């Protein structure tokens, strides 16, 4: 095969490497010179060919992974970045095909060991991209070895599809880096510093395409990742608080209840959309309203308190216009009926309007039935 060649390893392989061993008669498979040229000039073409080899069962996923694991440690700089890109796009292509064949797989499924390891590698590649973006931002340099994407990828219109793009939660667009970061302002207020909490234009690099962040978010939103992958992402963001998109990744790795608490303190402007995306039962809204009510009652800051009250009003308005009046009253914190009477009145008006609409529709149907006769 033109893309690969076999060599005799100087040293014996470790036990870990033996899991992916593609040796036959003490020979090791590695990339040929043609593959190395394609990595630098046409990385997406090479990725597509590799994914086709696996899809057609001419090579196994395990064999391709082993070739990369043998090749990557010896490459640094641009060469290593090109190989990493080929591996990332190969895995994206492979799992695009894999989850078309097995659409019912989720985090409860029992994946084969090579599939689990491949998902781990894909997740780590996205985390590495985000970390490189952080380093490039700090150094304010255009060093290619620290840029998540190569120039060929940035300029190419042939982008690889985003896995589970349709699963991407809408509330994530209201979080940094896609929206202004208010966490520093909120923390400053909690420390007693005088800072205006109004939303200001984002300081993020607006020209940067957050492709790797979106791709990782979509994987986490999909529910397809094995638990160990989610745990690994959470541990990474905990130890890298300045990671690009840290807060959004943290929210996606924890339970809905824990995520609500995080957003309440660091990104309250997303709470309504988060609730729309993630909540499934009325008790979750009741818990959210209780947390917000306690937060507002405990605040004395003249600037911060009105901000949280505005968030509360937005959520109550949505509930009053969407949920039955009885459900709305049950969601309100105990003893706050008088305080939030205007929203109860709004709910009554909506209920009355819906009743009139139903009567009009029934009468209209009856009239149409009469005319047909």
What attributes does this structure have?
373 residues; 3 domains; two-stranded antiparallel ribbon; 17 helices
Summarize the structure in words.
With 373 residues, this protein is mostly helical. It folds into three domains: 1-73, no CATH class; 104-153 and 160-195 and 207-258, no CATH class; 279-373, no CATH class. The chain contains 17 helices and two strands. Helix 2 packs across helix 3 and helix 12 packs antiparallel against helix 13 (271-278). The protein is elongated, with a radius of gyration of 27 Å. Residues 21-25, 147-157 and 199-208 have low confidence and may be disordered.
Give a short summary of the structure.
By secondary structure, this protein is mainly alpha-helical.
Produce the secondary structure layout.
Layout: E1 4-7, H1 15-18, E2 28-31, H2 33-41, H3 43-55, H4 61-71, H5 77-101, H6 113-139, H7 151-155, H8 183-190, H9 211-222, H10 227-239, H11 246-253, H12 256-266, H13 271-278, H14 282-298, H15 304-322, H16 325-331, H17 341-372
Antiparallel strand pairs: 1-2
Helix pairs in contact: 2-3, 3-5, 5-6, 6-9, 6-10, 9-11, 10-11, 11-12, 12-13, 12-14, 14-15, 15-17
